Amino acid sequence: NKQSSSQEEVSMGPRSYSQHQLGAKVEMVYSLLSMLGTHDRDEMTRTLLAMSSSPESCIAMKQSGCLPLLVQLVHGGQESKSVRKCAAQALHNLVHCHTDDKRGRREARVLR
């Protein structure tokens, strides 16, 4: 295998992503998560929901720890109905994004 470490790829199902591509996505998610205290939760969950429609973003969101955040938002008693609904849909999208691998199937079973 002649790939250098900078060209290392991560295989997620039928797609492969370079570490650079994933790094950029992870940075984007981290910057979004850093805004948690300054932006309203409704806007944040709508943004996370929009991001969860892209398989590449789903990978970055999972890697940066969005799953526990979304679970918290879904089950948070103080959250509005719209926040819980957007968070639940984003969580569904993340979990069902890569059900072709073992971890994805396990996550999908937990979500049921």
Task: Briefly say what this structure is.
The protein is mainly α and 112 residues long. It has helices spanning 19-34, 41-51, 55-63, 66-75, 81-96, 102-111, and strands spanning 9-12, 15-18. It is built from 6 helices and 2 strands, in the order E-E-H-H-H-H-H-H.
List the helices and strands and how they pair.
Elements: E1 9-12, E2 15-18, H1 19-34, H2 41-51, H3 55-63, H4 66-75, H5 81-96, H6 102-111
Antiparallel strand pairs: 1-2
Helix pairs in contact: 1-3, 2-5, 4-5
List keywords for this structure.
single chain, 112 residues, mainly alpha, two-stranded antiparallel ribbon, 2 strands, wnt signaling pathway, beta-catenin binding, ARM-like, Armadillo repeat-containing domain-containing protein
Describe the structure in your own words.
InterPro entries: Apc_fam, ARM-like, ARM-type_fold, Armadillo. GO terms for molecular function: beta-catenin binding; microtubule binding. Keywords: Wnt signaling pathway. Belongs to the adenomatous polyposis coli (APC) family. 64% of the residues lie in helices and 7% in strands. The protein has one domain (7-111). It is built from 6 helices and 2 strands; from the N terminus they run E-E-H-H-H-H-H-H. The chain is mainly alpha-helical. A two-stranded antiparallel sheet has the order 1-2. The model is unreliable at 1-15 (pLDDT under 50). Helix 2 packs parallel to helix 5 and helix 4 (66-75) runs antiparallel to helix 5. It starts with 8 loop residues before the first strand and ends with a helix. The chain has helices at residues 19-34, 41-51, 55-63, 66-75, 81-96, 102-111, and strands at 9-12, 15-18. 24% of the residues are buried.
